[in-house]
Structures are given as C-alpha cells and as structure tokens.
Design brief:
By secondary structure, this protein is mainly β. It has no helices and 11 strands. The strands form 2 sheets. Strands 2, 4, 5, 6, 9, 10 and 11 form a 7-stranded mixed beta sheet that branches.
Length: about 120
Amino acid sequence: QAQVVESGGGLVQPGGSLRLSCAVSGSRVRIYTMGWYRQRPGMHRELVATITHEYDVNYADSVKGRFTISRDAAKPMVDLQMNNLTPEDTAVYYCHADWYDGRLWGQGTQVTVSS
C-alpha cells in the first residue's frame, strides 16, 4: 500500500532556512501532482506549493520568492526549500501525492520559526 512520508521539519530562527522532503513508498503507482500544504495554529489547511508530473509549479502568494518546490525525475519524491522563514510560517506541513485513485497524505512535519 502506498504511503507518503515527510521529513526535514524542525525549529529554526527567523530568517533561517529548512528543507522538507517527501517520498511515496510501498507501491509503484504512477504519481501525478505532488505538493505541500500547511496548517497554522487555529487555521485551516492551506496550499503552499504544488508541482505536476510535467513540472508545472504553483505557489501561495505568501511564499513566492522564498520557497522552492522541486521534484525528482525518476522517483516519486518532492522537496520544499524554505528560505527567509518568518514566525508566520510556523505550521504543520503536509505532503500530498495524487494518483489515479485519489490523493495520499503524509502524517505531517512540524516547522517552528522562533527566536
């Protein structure tokens, strides 16, 4: 059974950087769009960035110019490079992977931006 596994969260100071990684394991299904959402305290889950299997990318306005999403050409893996982080980026970040049968979600990884 396919699973989405995230890694790379943690605590970072304002202005710092983190890199999140996500991989689909357990199945050889074809993966289409992959991406990241986040849920900040007291708020709904929101889109951060997505990338299609044709490498079209989409970013939330709040992260444009600071975050970069990238995807492995051979494996169902996606990274999110986050630069110039602010306390408003503090959230649980969730990776998703879309396949023919729907959307898979990871368990989430905590990112905390604090001095």
